[in-house]
Amino acid sequence: MYRAVLTAAAAAALVIGGVTPAVAATPSSRLPGAPTSVHVSGAGDAATLTWSPPKTGAAVKHWRVSIRPAAGQPGSGTEVVAATVRSERYGWIRAGVHYTFSVRAVGAKGDGRSVSVRYTAPASTTVAQSLYGLDAAGSVVRFPTTGTGAPRTVAKDGAGYAADDVGNVFVPSRDGTKLLQYPAGGGTARVLATGLHLTKDLRSDVAGNVYWVDSVSGGIVKLPIGAGVPKTILPSSGTAWTVGRDGTVSTFVSAPGSSTGPSVGTVVSRTVHGVVTTRKVGQASGQPIGYFTTVVADGEGSLYLDFRAFGGSGYHGFWSLAAGSSTLVQVPAKVKYQFSATNADSLLLGQSAGWCSATSEADPFHPCTTDHSLATLVTRDASGTTQELAVTGGPKVPSNGYYPGAADSAGDLFVDADSGLWRIPAAGGAAQQISTGQYDRLTSI
């Protein structure tokens, strides 16, 4: 996750410890040799592994890189990258944890020898997350998630954008043919790829890969971090699509006649390793759920699907789908108006004090006058554990509908209300107004 680095020492390249010798024994001509010049450097809570090609052995088809321990990393910490790549960046590096990074060349006949380096981020590394959003003029603006400190405009003309965990911001060109990267430290944007069919709905994962729906084919395209060739990884984005912070891309397609049968729809998921699975999903009772609205993901493989109830209530509620499961489980929450967001491990709901059905809201003679003030923060993690905390002084939640916000790793919820941008603390208590402006497509990294 991107954090604004608060100490100069954390931003410097750090000393490598315990480098495994890069000179292998005489290699077989059938296998690639060992990578050379293997190094790791760190800045804040990110680290970058770099290497050079083997000096001997067979041709390299691709590289297999890994990090251990792998908590919070895409693909359980192991990824295959193209032969032209010479580096891999990792987020979620925690101070004081001893990490081992490894890289090996893979040839047509098998794997070469792995080379490993060890790295420990210093305990002095102090970082703070950032919140991003689009202002009314279409500029990407960054806020500290602490709620204090001045916002900064990162990119203009950012009708769509994505941001990675070190603070790089990705924006489509006006004509949708080029993907631009605005560096985390500021400066001139650079063109990452051209000849594209971009849409405004860009996504990113914790590793920094960028995803979008091709405006011509409708397929989901992935651009690997830093460099590489954009590739269609799923042929269709379905009714809705989402990217988890672990790099799992999922689509959902509503089933025809799902209101009367046990099948709600089909989920297709693709892991960061390219493994594709298809699941027909429904709920255990087989009863009608409602009209599908959207799907969002956490960083542990769980999906959360929002449905609008049948009939005149207009209520929007979430159902969870655990990693590998085909059974939807209703998220136990009060029937309220609500903002929603996911972070790495939870679904967060900012719920109102009162609620009225859509038919009551629209009644011209006796309209609903209930309290729309955000009064409760509900969190549900991947294990199903749910917590409710009282909130005071919160903004008003709009009427029945789906209203996405953003959430940081600490569990703070950020929402765009009619009165402006608000922060709901993870511990509950007093809500904090960050800005009186309106911001769309909130993202916390």
Word description of this protein:
Residues 1-27 have low confidence and may be disordered. This protein folds into four domains: 3-120, Immunoglobulins (Immunoglobulin-like); 157-234, Thrombin, subunit H, CATH 2.40.10; 238-331, no CATH class; 334-445, no CATH class. The radius of gyration is 23 Å and the shape is globular. It is mainly beta. It has an eight-stranded mixed beta sheet with strand order 21-22-23-24-28-27-26-25, with no helix packed on it. A six-stranded mixed beta sheet has the order 33-29-30-31-32-37, with no helix packed on it. Strands 1, 10, 11, 12 and 39 form a five-stranded antiparallel beta sheet that branches. The protein is built from two helices and 39 strands.
Task: Note poorly predicted spans.
Answer: 1-27
Structural class: mainly beta
- Give the CATH level 1 class of the largest domain: Mainly Beta
Q: How large, in whole angstroms, is the Cα Rg? A: 23 Å
> Which architecture name of the largest domain does CATH use?
Sandwich
Give the fraction of residues assigned to helices.
under 10%
Distance between the termini: 5 Å
The strands making up the biggest β-sheet line up spatially as 21-22-23-24-28-27-26-25
Number of helices: 2
Portion in beta strands: 35-45%
CATH fold-level label of the largest domain: Immunoglobulin-like
What does the average pLDDT come to? 86
Using DSSP, what is the number of strands? 39
- Total domain modules: 4
Major beta sheet summary: 8 strands, mixed
